[in-house]
Amino acid sequence: MKVSVILPAAGLGTRMGRSVPEKAGTSRKQFMLLEGSPILLHTIRKFVSCSEVSEIVVALRGDDLDWVRGLLAAEKFSKPVRLVQGGESRQESVENALATLQPGTDLVAVHDAVRPFIEHQVLDKVFAEASETGAAIVGIVPVDTVKQVHRNKIRQTIPRERLILAQTPQVFRFDLLKQAFAKAREDGFAGTDESSLVERLDQVEVSVIPGSDRNIKITKPSDMDLARLFLAEEMSARVSS
């Protein structure tokens, strides 16, 4: 089974509100340093170490390509890590990366570049499910009570057991995902994630694999303290194993 991973990393990350290394050019969250390495690099390392992944494709802003190319050259990864120019939106960036995949690809996993703590056992489960059903995503059940509101007035309380908070990776059969993106482009539809595009095809039901609250999306400065803790725990586990 050939699994290609797409990491859309062309966003500006304005919620971070902090500067990153000068050569990266802006305050993009994927380039924030986590114990000396950009978050993006930690995420790439996680997928390189996954036995089922064949290649990683990173979609970047054009002015970041050379800088990230230098980072990758220094790492000497054991698997192909390719760079493509992203678009103005996440959807455009993923579609640009999708267009570069080889016909022999079986599954495509799209993952947030700023989620470096996805666990291997979760990857194994979501890959297996997508291989069997064609579409699977990672998600967690919300722990807080969820209210539907209009303006500032509550309209109803929504049962949590019928809700999930979608995470990544979101994994799909290659041909199915290509079809979903083509249909979205034809209809002028902009989705908030890849699953929303596949759902519109009404061809398969998208499965949900239980994720983890460790699979955080680093989007604001306060997330960095938790990220340092998780990274220290991962490093300690490697040393002791």
The N- to C-terminal Cα distance equals: 28 Å
The count of helical stretches stands at 7
Morphology call = globular
Uncertain spans: 17-27
Mean pLDDT: 92
Strand element count: 11
The percent of residues in helical segments reads: 25-40%
Question: Major β-sheet, in short?
Answer: 7 strands, mixed
The sequence of SSEs as H and E is: EEEHEHEHEHEEEEHHEH
Question: How many individual domains?
Answer: 1
Strand order of the largest sheet: 5-4-1-6-10-7-11
**Topology-level CATH name:** Spore Coat Polysaccharide Biosynthesis Protein SpsA, Chain A
The assigned CATH architecture is: Alpha-Beta Complex
Beta content comes to: 15-25%
Class based on secondary structure composition and strand pairing: alpha/beta
Spell out the CATH superfamily.
Answer: Spore Coat Polysaccharide Biosynthesis Protein SpsA, Chain A
Indicate the radius of gyration in whole angstroms: 18 Å
CATH class: Alpha Beta
Essential attributes:
Spore Coat Polysaccharide Biosynthesis Protein SpsA, Chain A, alpha/beta, seven-stranded mixed beta sheet, two-stranded antiparallel sheet, 35% helix, 241 residues, 11 strands
Helix/strand layout:
Elements: E1 3-8, E2 33-34, E3 37-38, H1 39-48, E4 53-60, H2 65-75, E5 81-85, H3 90-98, E6 107-110, H4 120-133, E7 135-140, E8 146-150, E9 153-158, E10 165-173, H5 174-187, H6 194-201, E11 207-210, H7 223-240
Parallel strand pairs: 1-4, 1-6, 4-5, 7-11
Antiparallel strand pairs: 2-3, 6-10, 7-10, 8-9
